[in-house]
Amino acid sequence: MTDEQLLDRILRSARSHGDFHDRPVPEALLRQAHDLMKWGPTTANSQPARIFYLQSKESREKLRPALSAVNLEKTMKAPLVALVAYDTRFYEFLPRLYHNPDAINWYNKPPVAEINGFRNGSLQGAYLILALRAVGLDCGPMSGFDLAKCDAAFFPDGRLKSNFLINIGYGTGAKLPPRNPRFSFEEQCRML
User: Which of the four pLDDT bands, split at 50, 70 and 90, describes residue 175?
Assistant: First the structure.
């Protein structure tokens, strides 16, 4: 695969899929995607994202009450769903993950930890989407679900918090609307 083909696969031609072939997602591909995703930068190498792959019927049923009506059917039918969450106490790992042992004290306050955990966990979730695409999988990322219900079902102790979901599999290409426009550089960027 050329560099141009890879760029097409992960960004230029990639689409957010809502309809997938009934084909399981091999764990080996998830591991390959993780081995790519983990190298994406986060503040102080904090790596707060926690990924839960909902494969079993039980885990999907646990998610069901949190799903919005528009996302219910496609999420329940997808071969795999990733629940992307973040660790609100990610800073506890900084002495192991970051070269400055004092970094734990930069983030161990509730508002700072929450903001940085969410921000960097979101970055890691985006890296995951790109990595999943790079290994040949299609994604349908979404935020159409009730965070509080999801947290109550999966993270009752409050340490982890839900961020977004990704339906994963091999997209059928069916039901894809025409590609929506994107802002130009001039519309979205400023040189200061």
Answer: confident
